[in-house]
Amino acid sequence: MPSPRIASPELQQEMDACREKINKTLKHLLPESDLAEQPLFEAMRYGVLNGGKRLRPFLVLQGAKLFGVDEMRARRVGAAIELVHSYSLIHDDLPAMDDADKRRGKPSLHKAYDDATAILAGDALLTMAFEVLADEETHADPRVRVELVKELASAAGPHGMVGGQMLDLIAEGESFDIGTISRLQRLKTGKLISFCCEAGAILGKANPAHRQALRNYAQDLGLAFQVTDDLLDVEGNAIEMGKDTGKDADAGKATFVTELGLEAARSRAEMLSAQAKRHLRCFDGGRGNMLCDVADYVLARRQ
Amino acid sequence: MPSPRIASPELQQEMDACREKINKTLKHLLPESDLAEQPLFEAMRYGVLNGGKRLRPFLVLQGAKLFGVDEMRARRVGAAIELVHSYSLIHDDLPAMDDADKRRGKPSLHKAYDDATAILAGDALLTMAFEVLADEETHADPRVRVELVKELASAAGPHGMVGGQMLDLIAEGESFDIGTISRLQRLKTGKLISFCCEAGAILGKANPAHRQALRNYAQDLGLAFQVTDDLLDVEGNAIEMGKDTGKDADAGKATFVTELGLEAARSRAEMLSAQAKRHLRCFDGGRGNMLCDVADYVLARRQ
Question: Would the ipTM clear 0.90, i.e. be above it?
Fold first, then answer.
């Protein structure tokens, strides 16, 4: 089996630049004040500005580039998605959920503050994401803004991310088959990643074929990402991951690795990554190269 | 001091009819399935379809009537607000927050299910509210839909409801002055009530003066509502309220009653209610009568 490529220097550079830009946009958007409720604002900043890789906003920026979208608009959409992603991690880490003490090597939000503040900070971040998308700075055309809102809500709600988190809770102690595990991951992480990849097409009013190509790319990429996550949960070590590893297996949760075995899971991830890249062939002149590199990176990442 | 009027038969009838309509819309909107994640959908229904008075949607429907808005549109907006209101109660009742075992005489959601399901059901309801508003069934004009999204997010987020909940947490053990308590209530309940009153004006593309009148009405109504809530917390009994009473005072929380005393708090509520009604004078031909009745009802309610 060929060993997967690591991130190309070009991709690494682009991802670093994107991370800087998104962090700047997030810092600008997140509330700050000296009012009595400022512990909430502090907690929101703690939960969002915590060294995340910003892979999701990177997908938005790259997708937007394909259609010549103004980068400031793409940055706002990328930031909104990162607010949603951050809220989901904050709530996921709560004692009633995954009960994780650490997140990216630092105390998780409820450990640094308390459970009540973590619940409220998550709620505030989720709500804020929709305010950012609905603001006219995100796009001059209200039709575009309202489509972004609708698609994000659909990806993050009961038929998307939250539904997937519920399945994930139920998976403890249940023995789901590989079909249900795929669905779980499609809901829990896949739909939001799909939205990331499609957002540029929405902002750029792309034709349906291009939008569909990005949707297909996202579907395979998202699943490759999740299978790799399951592999890392078994193979990774706590220092590299910055969080507890082996937790899913310990909790008796069905994952791609417990269902398929290590080798078959690794092959599945590689097959999905290759398939993801094939969907990008419709973008000529090498315009899709960076997104192809992402499909390689997702396999090769060690954290 | 004249004793305040109770709800007029006409108002009671309208409120009952509104409750039926909104419950029907909510039942239609809330997800249902036999998929593995269906405990989430069940919990969402449990948390929303629990005998609520639907006062907020009533305000939306009455405001929309002033501008001849199609009632089906107003019902969707009213339902979206009720999803947000329900999510806030579900998260508020959690052990990490108010730790309330009962809500409207029944076990609170985390008691009927568990804490994790309550967190996720709240998250799902909040997200769904924005999906409902962004859907074109809510209004044909995307400009209207995106404005509804933006205003709801602003009312419910860190500078609105969630900020108010944070202040409420901090208020335990702190001695806030009456100015900060007013601000707390304006954030925690007032801004969402303002949005309810303004939503009809947004749907009906009302002129700025009419929209401002409704905003002013809402501000006074919301505060009257909250002062009355504090009075009921002291004066009410657990059976009538369907929830624990006297909890705020027991927890040493500053309220209008602890700061002003019973008599002055009651006067304040009456003054605010009268002021709210004065803002409606710009709606001729008795069109604002039902909203005037609401201002009376808010004072007179016993639960």
Answer: yes
